[in-house]
Structures are given as C-alpha cells and as structure tokens.
Amino acid sequence: MKKKVITLIRHAESENNLFYESPNNKNILKLTPDPGITQKGIIQAEKLGHYFKENENSYNFDLIISSPMKRAIESSSIIFNKSNAEKTIWDTVFEAKGPYSKNDKSCIKRSEFKKKFPEYSLPDTIKEQGWYSKNFSESVYATFNRARRVLNTLINDQSHNNIAIVSHCIFISIILRILLFKHIFIHFSCKSQLSPPNTSLSTFIILDKNAYIKELMISPHLENNLIIP
Residue span of the signal peptide, if any (predicted)? Predict the structure, then answer.
C-alpha cells in the first residue's frame, strides 16, 4: 500500500472559545451553536497558512477537507487561501454532538456555501435548509462511530496521498484516541491530555493500513510555542 499522510487541524479561535475564557459568567449566555472565528482566530489561521507555505515540501497537500461549521470553514479558507489543492466540505467531520440547539439551528445553507466558499466542493447531502437536518444533538456513541467511519474512509482513499482536515477539538481527539487505543470506545468526557489547541496540527502516516503518529498537537506557527526536540 502506498504511504499516505493525514494532518488533523483544529479550527482557529471561535467566538465561543473567547466567551469560555472570559471571567464573566454572563458571557456563557452569548454562546451560539455555530459561531464564527474571532480577530485573534483570523491571525492564527493566517500564521498557519504562512507556515504551510514556508514548509510546503513537508506539507504538500493534495486534498483539503473542512467541517461545514462556520469556525472550521472560515479557518480553512484562510489557512489554505493560496493552496492549489482540491478543496471540499464533508458534513461528517463536524464537532461532537452537532450544532443543534432548542432555540437556534443556524447552519450554513448550500447557497451560502457556494457564495462564500466557491472553491470548496459540496456533497449532495448538504441541502438548502442547512447541512445539519436533525432536530436533536448527536449521541456520544454516534459521534464515536462517525469518527471511526471517517477514519476508515481516509485510510481506504486511493485518490489522495496527503490530506488535511480542518475540524474540531473533541472530534480530532476522538480520532487520535481511536488511533492510539485501537478502536476501543472511550467516552469523550473522560479526562485526557488529547485536547488540541486552536490551529494546532496532528499528523499521522498510514502505511499498510497501520497508523504512525508523526506530530501530535503542535503549533509551530504561533509565538512562544514550546517545541521539545
């Protein structure tokens, strides 16, 4: 089997991330199901884009996959603004539980994707009413099984050799746990150090259907980043 490289990237800082970090508890009330990225997030994404450009021999992506959530697709469009790689949106790599809220289900519509992100192809499953059609939050087991299906699809893909995926903290963490713990189910509420920071990247190599982790949650593009040799 030909060697394949897959890089998992967490989106840049979102509006919800900013509210969570605020000492003012009232900001929690401002949380939205599908937030965009902040000004700080834009800078993070731009820096990661520059880093990939400066190291394109190491990160020669031929496919860019983005979650359809606003914070992911906004990050992806900035990070890979100058990339000539094929770009697509998968509605299978969204964050755990999904965006559903009893008061708001503000998913991007198909026509909005085409207008704002025309360089990204869309699967037929993304409809005009929004990409998330369920009226309930995804269960823990459903998220785990979705991550496992995504991983199997990536491993068995025969058309691309170097894939980047812009996704989310918990979803990426689940994929990493599957790789490390060989498909054993681990509840994502368990205490774990596998919590990737904004715009961090984790790279693993697939060879003969075995996964070898090359980089784990690193952020070499950000200032004051600690890199242990």
Answer: none
Separation of alpha carbons 4 and 195, rounded Å: 24
Q: Which CATH superfamily is domain 4-218 in?
A: Phosphoglycerate mutase-like (3.40.50.1240)
10 marked among binding-site residues: yes
Residue-wise pLDDT tens digits, 185-221: 455 554 455 789 999 999 999 888 788 889 999 999 9
Consult the annotation and say whether 212 binds a ligand.
no
- Greatest Cα pair distance, the chain, in angstroms, is 53
pLDDT of 74 over the 80 cut: yes
Nearest-angstrom CA–CA distance, 137 and 196:
23
Q: Determine whether the annotation assigns residue 83 to a binding site.
A: no
Q: Tell me the HSE value of 48 on the side-chain side, using a 13 A CA sphere.
A: 29
Is 19 marked as binding a ligand?
yes
Q: How do strand 86-89 and strand 210-218 relate by DSSP bridges?
A: unpaired
Does 120 carry a binding-site annotation? no
Question: What are the boundaries of each domain within the chain?
Answer: 4-218
Q: Which residue bears the tokens 């990426």? A: 172
**Predicted pLDDT of residue 191:** 46
Q: Do the annotations mark residue 135 as ligand-binding?
A: no
